[in-house]
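Query structure, 540 tokens:
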């Protein structure tokens, strides 16, 4: 054996496959695992005693919103300190590349509530140029990218609310092929966000045919996660059947109390599709609240034409009235009505990237509206008007956290063998605690405290399953020749500390994190970050 650079000694190995823990030393040379052997059988100049600790593959965040943050804060301590060593950007069909120069300013504004504000002009247009920008930033972790459906549609069709013509489908397919050649893992869509929501199922099928040429993955925020969730699932299955693409459901959940009981039927639909040969997987964060842009409270038609047109509608008394009426309608809706699920008390303002109104951060819309109007109580209609005003004044650049889910459903989804872990973490302001605590929360709350799943299964979901689903070769396993991305944690102490009231808290029990063979976290503290890279997809 060649001489190792580092040895993790006397640990219990959870190798990412789900097999039982076993004692071993793990030797690392450069950026790969050199060997695994019995305790005290390997030696190197640098050794870390891992007695009583678990050595696992580095965790993989398959749904991340660090697309711009990685360029502003490449250390990404909120991610690496919970054991994440690879993130997948380009989610929900809305991200930063490919992008035409003429569209950059408008897209940057529309993404501010989701990804923050870079504070300077973007120096890329293609996926290849964006990945190069990531490499220049020297990130602490490895980074991969999905092609955003919205970016492709914007480049070819603008923000028009209509079906694509055949020649436009062909142009979008060619842009997808180019981006896949440049290293993207596949295609993402967000069917509640413009312009993705303007596409029909046939468009998704045709675009996925281009993805299939490279054996890429199709990752979808479904058209409904609530009143019509069965239709949302059926659409994903149909796209998989017709195109042959591998389908991955983003942040699998059911929103709205009246919909929670549908979980068993929804799971049965997926199991039936899998039995018929459709490749369907999903990811999940372990919380009962979600987080996205506050603009998502508006009906889909309000976004047609882009941000400027939406702002015009928010300035119109009659258009505001139409939007308010739809938001207050409690009947089943074919769009995901966040207002119906959560109400003003269940929607919290975590981030206003402009820096305006810091007094609103961490408050729900009802509290913030009361503060603005200097009153102790406000009607639901007035809370909506406050939200409209805030979106208008901030030019749509506002984030939100919305409470709408069930702990029982979260647990049932977590037990599905095809569901891996993600954060879906937005990072600005006072963020959702999932950005800081997702992986330790599962290991502490759901593994150690509740025995919902085994430790080995949890590690598989966080590493091996994620790598297999996204075809991240050499990642997600502890085996000879695998990528030297590793996390060492204390199974008796690991736990999240981030809460909704105080979310910027690092977890406990994550002892060491290794990225590309180099220590990024040592004894629970950031050590020498900056060894990550842009991971480019290569079809076999």
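Result returned for the query:
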């Amino acid at each position: 054996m060649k001489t190792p650079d580092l040895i993790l000694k006397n640990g219990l190995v959870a190798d990412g496959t789900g097999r039982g823990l076993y004692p071993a030393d793990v030797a690392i040379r450069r950026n790969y695992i050199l060997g695994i052997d019995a305790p005290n059988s390997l030696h190197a100049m640098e050794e870390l005693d891992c007695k009583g600790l678990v050595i696992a593959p580095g965790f993989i965040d398959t749904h991340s919103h660090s697309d711009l943050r990685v360029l502003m804060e490449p250390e990404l301590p909120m991610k690496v300190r919970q054991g994440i060593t690879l993130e997948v950007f380009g989610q929900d069909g809305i991200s930063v590349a490919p992008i035409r120069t003429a569209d950059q300013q408008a897209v940057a504004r529309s993404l501010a509530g989701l990804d923050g504000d870079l504070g300077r002009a973007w120096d890329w247009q293609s996926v290849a140029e964006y990945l190069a920008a990531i490499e220049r930033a020297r990130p602490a972790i490895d980074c991969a990218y999905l092609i955003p459906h919205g970016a492709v549609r914007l480049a070819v069709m603008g923000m028009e609310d209509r079906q694509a013509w055949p020649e436009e489908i062909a142009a979008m397919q060619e842009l997808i092929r180019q981006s896949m050649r440049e290293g993207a893992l596949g295609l993402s869509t967000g069917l509640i966000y413009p312009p993705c929501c303007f596409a029909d199922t046939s468009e998704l099928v045709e675009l996925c045919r281009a993805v299939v040429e490279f054996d890429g993955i199709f990752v979808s925020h479904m058209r409904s996660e609530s009143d019509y969730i069965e239709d949302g699932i059926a659409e994903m299955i149909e796209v998989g059947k017709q195109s042959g693409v591998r389908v991955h459901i983003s942040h699998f959940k059911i929103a709205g109390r009246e919909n929670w009981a549908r979980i068993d039927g929804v799971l049965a639909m997926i199991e039936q599709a899998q039995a018929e040969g459709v490749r369907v997987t999903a990811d999940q964060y372990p919380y009962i609240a979600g987080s996205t842009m506050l603009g998502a409270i508006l009906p889909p038609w309000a976004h047609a034409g882009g941000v400027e047109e939406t702002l015009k509608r928010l300035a119109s008394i009659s258009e505001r009235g139409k939007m308010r009426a739809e938001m207050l309608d409690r009947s089943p809706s074919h769009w995901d009505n966040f207002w119906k699920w959560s109400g003003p008390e269940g929607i919290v303002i975590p981030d206003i990237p402009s820096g305006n109104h810091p007094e609103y951060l961490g408050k729900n819309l009802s509290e913030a509206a009361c503060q603005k109007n200097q009153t102790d109580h406000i009607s639901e209609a007035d809370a909506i008007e406050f939200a409209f005003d805030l979106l208008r004044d901030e030019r749509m650049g506002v984030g939100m956290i919305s409470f709408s889910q069930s702990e029982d459903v979260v647990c049932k989804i977590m037990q599905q063998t095809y569901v891996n872990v993600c954060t879906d973490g937005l990072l600005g302001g006072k963020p959702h605690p999932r950005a800081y605590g997702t992986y330790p929360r599962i290991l502490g709350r759901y593994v150690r405290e509740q025995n919902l799943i085994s430790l080995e299964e949890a590690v598989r979901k966080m590493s091996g399953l994620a790598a297999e689903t996204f075809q991240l070769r050499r990642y997600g396993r502890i085996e000879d020749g695998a990528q030297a991305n590793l996390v060492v944690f204390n199974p008796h102490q690991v736990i999240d500390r981030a809460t909704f009231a105080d979310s910027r808290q690092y977890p406990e029990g994550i002892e060491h994190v290794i990225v590309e063979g180099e220590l990024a976290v040592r004894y629970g503290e950031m050590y020498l970050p900056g060894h990550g890279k842009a991971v480019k997809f290569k079809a076999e």
